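Batch manifest, entry 17 of 40.
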Amino acid sequence: MLSGLCALFSNTLRRILSPLFNKGFHNVVGFGTFLTALLAQFYGYEYFHHSILWSFVRVLQVVTLVSLVLTSIGPLKALYRKIASFFE
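Output type: structure tokens
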């Protein structure tokens, strides 16, 4: 919500806060939210071990971790570029 408010008032914040910093903040908050959601899903599979096979739970957890790693590459690259350009 804070990131959305920063985007809403970006024209007035441009004088106070660098747009690069605003976009970097948005990237960090979005990545943190995505990471929290997938980790909750990963640990949520632990509660299904009584109703389905334990090996299938492990498969679901591995698929979740693989999707986390593969989908995190792009946002982490973008964040690295923003941090690198901020210190140039």
